[in-house]
Structure formats: C-alpha cells, structure tokens
Write a structure and sequence with these properties.
Layout: H1 4-18, H2 21-34, H3 38-63, H4 75-89, H5 94-107, H6 117-135, H7 139-166, H8 178-181, H9 184-193, H10 197-214, H11 220-250, H12 253-256, H13 262-305, H14 314-329, H15 333-359, H16 367-389, H17 395-401, H18 414-431
Length: 432
C-alpha cells in the first residue's frame, strides 16, 4: 500500500532531484535583468522550468523509462538523441555546471582558501569522488533525500524567502538586456530552458517508476496517480522557490554589480542578509542539493550507456563520467553557461515535441510518419536557433527566418513544428 506519507517522501525526493544548479543560479540573474517585469518573467520561467518537466515526468513514469519516448524513431536516431541528451544533462554540460555551482556558491563564499585553478580542481575532484561513491550504491542517498535533506533545505529556503520579502536589499530596477526589448513572458520561457529540467525529467521519470515498482505499484493507472500526486508537491515547491529567487534578483541592485551569473548574486544576497553564519548554512545545503542532482543524473546516464555492451558495466560508466565531469568542470561556471545555451536550443525543442507526441500517440493515424515529419522540422528550425546563438547562421537564412513569429525570441521552431504535426495528421489519414 502506497500511503500518504510515501507520497510526501516521493514528492520531496523529486523536488531534491530537480533542485540542482540551474534552479538556483538562473532565477536571480533573470530577476535582476527583468527588473520591474520580474513577475511576468518568472511566470514564463515556471512554465518551461516547472510545468513542462512535470508533464514529462508523468509521461515517462507512465511508459516506464525515458527511452520509450523514442521507440518510434529509427534506431540510429534514437541512439543519437538519447546519447546526446544524456551527455548534455550529464558530464559534458550539466554535471560540470553542478560542480561549479557548488564551488562558486558553497565553497568560495566561506573564504577558507583563495580561488585558484588548483583549489578549483581539488574541490571538483573531492566533490565528484564523493558523488561517485554514492552512485555505486545509489539507493543510499536517494532513499534519505525525501526524509532528511530536503526538509532541511526547505527550512533554509523559507527563511531566505521570508527575509527577502520583509527586508529586500534594494528597490526594483528597470529591465535590461533581452527584457528591455522583448516580451518578458517569452524571455522567461527561454530562460526556463536553462534549468535542463525537461531533459532531466526524461531520466528522473525512470527513477520514479522504479521507486514505485519497489513498493509494488506497477499498474499504469496507479503509477500516473502517484506520480502526479508526488509531482505536484515538487511543482508547488519549485514554483514558490522560483518566484522568490526572481524577486531576490529584482531587488539585488546593491549586490549585483559585477556579478557574471545568478549564483554570485544569490551568495552575496544571503551573505548580506545573514552574515557569516548564514553563509555556512547555505554552503552545506547547496553542496547537498547539488550532490543529490549529481548522483541522480549521472546514475541515470551510466545506466543508459551500460546497456550498449555487457563488458562495459554500470560501474565503468560511473567512473568514466566522474572523470569526464571533473575535467570539463575546470572550464568554469560562466564559460559553461555560455556554451550550454546553443546545445539546449538544439535538443530542448526535440525533447518537448517527443513528450507531446507521446501524449497524443494513440490519436495519430500514421505514427511513424507524424514522428518523422514533426521531428525533422523541429530539428531543422531548432538548429537554426542554435547556430544563430553562436553567430554561425548564414545571413541569408536569418533574413528569411526573421519573418517567423517568435524567431527573435529563440522559439522559431514552435509554430513550424505544430504546422508539420497538423499536416502529418491530415496526410497520415490519407495514407492510412
């Protein structure tokens, strides 16, 4: 029997798995640049950073594992997409980012040692080795997350939120950068990509399904029921957290000068509010939160790649990904954030459309045709968004794409993808 207490613990576990680097570092900077438009921007951020991951989590838990989303694709396309996804949310981008957030937000503010490449490497090495030891016995940390670490984390976040609301450091500033020229809602939607939580939900959905299976919950109806119940706890907590961090950023002018990422703004703000004692508490919680995400994501990545060859076991991939994360993490947080965005602009829309196609799969007259047409158009346009971000898109193509709605905001793929899906439904009926 899956009790109400079990649902709460599962919800806390889901919240802790999602609460990693992007969830903390992006909202403060987005809130600062959104300024007086922070509430509208935060709503957009919640739609792509909370609602979409929640839908993805439920869909993946329902089908059992993330790989089921790609079962209607050719084998080469399935492997390419999933391998790219796991590398993006894993050791090439997200997990080095998690490591650097822990370093810049939790370790450096303690002022124990100077910030040098040597110090950075030692911290990255120890942090990831500790994570690796948990990964080799993943149930050890995951089983304790919902009961112990998350409640402690929530206490700190509640204290920070209440103090930010009661005693904001600065007046809210005017919008800047993209928020000064584009729609705050659309800019918030795009910034929500950067949490990578839709991609992570593809991995975490399988973890939730296995956690339910251990408690003998296996029917699709019960899996959906309990995943929605537990997931809504995570949705509520994450949404409240994001609104609070956006407001923190919007009122951070006093400490935001010279900051290159939201992690620095958050650390400076908490230090200004609570002094050295608050910094120590925050450091411990952030390290634990990022460690949980590191273990959850890297375990899922290792589990996927271990299926390719019987001699390359789960343990082999855990060790390999740990070494790769340590290496890539030496790039530094600000640089990692800069190079992550083009990759996300390419893969995120594909993940969103795969989830949507799975939801309406039984309604498609020709499943294979709809998948091929829709995803081909999605990839083509999202590739243009990605190339534009790094200034590699030919000017002639960009001049044409400028006529597309939402293209300037980085969502040029959206309308063409749904037009392609609509055409595939019509043509699929013709060929059925």
């Amino acid at each position: 029997m899956f009790t109400r207490k079990d649902i709460v613990v599962l919800g806390m576990m889901i919240f802790a798995l999602f609460l990693g680097a992007g969830n903390i570092i992006f909202p403060p900077m987005e809130g600062f640049t959104a300024g007086t438009h922070w509430s509208t921007a935060s709503l957009g951020f919640v739609l792509t950073g909370v609602l979409m991951p929640f839908i993805t989590l439920v869909v993946v838990a329902m089908v059992g594992r993330g790989e089921e989303l790609t079962r209607d694709l050719p084998k080469w396309a399935e492997v390419f997409f999933l391998a790219t996804l796991y590398l993006v949310i894993g050791s090439l981008f997200a997990m080095p980012r998690v490591t650097n957030v822990a370093y810049e937000m939790a370790w450096l503010p303690l002022n124990i040692v100077e910030d040098t490449p040597y110090t950075h490497f030692i911290f990255s090495f120890i942090f990831n080795i500790v994570g690796m030891l948990f990964m080799l016995r993943p149930n050890t940390i995951i089983s304790t997350v919902g009961k112990f670490m998350t409640p402690a984390l929530l206490v700190l976040l509640i204290v920070v939120t209440v103090n930010v609301i009661i005693s904001p450091l600065s007046d809210i500033v005017e919008p800047s950068k993209a928020y000064a020229t584009n729609s705050a809602m659309t800019s918030g939607l795009i910034s929500g990509y950067q949490t990578m939580d839709v991609l992570a939900a593809i991995a975490f959905g399988g973890i939730v399904a296995r956690a339910l299976a251990v408690r003998n919950v296996s029917s699709v109806q019960n899996v959906v029921k309990y995943t929605i119940s537990a997931g809504l706890i995570s949705v509520f907590l994450l949404a409240v957290l994001y609104f609070a961090l956006f407001y923190l950023g919007a009122t951070s002018a006093q400490v935001a000068e010279g900051a290159t990422n939201g992690g620095q703004i958050f650390s400076r703000y908490v230090n200004a509010l609570f002094g050295a004692g608050g910094t120590w508490i925050m450091s411990g919680i952030i390290i634990l939160a990022n460690l949980t995400t590191l273990v959850g994501v890297t375990s899922a990545c290792a589990d996927y790649f271990a299926r390719f060859h019987i001699r390359l076991s789960y343990s082999f991939w855990v060790i390999l990904f740990t070494a790769l994360t340590i290496t890539v993490a030496q790039t530094g947080l600000t640089e990692l954030l800069r190079i992550t965005i083009p990759a996300l602009l390419l893969i995120y829309p594909v993940a969103i459309m795969l989830v949507f196609l799975q939801i309406i799969r039984n309604k498609l007259p020709n499943i294979t045709f709809s998948y091929y047409v829709t995803l081909l158009v999605t990839v083509s346009f999202s590739a243009c968004d990605s190339l534009k971000n790094i200034d590699l898109l030919p000017q002639t193509i960009e001049n044409i794409l400028n006529y597309l709605p939402l293209y300037a905001e980085g969502m040029g793929w959206l309308i063409p993808a749904f037009i392609a899906l609509g055409l595939s439904l019509f043509l699929g009926k013709k060929s059925a």
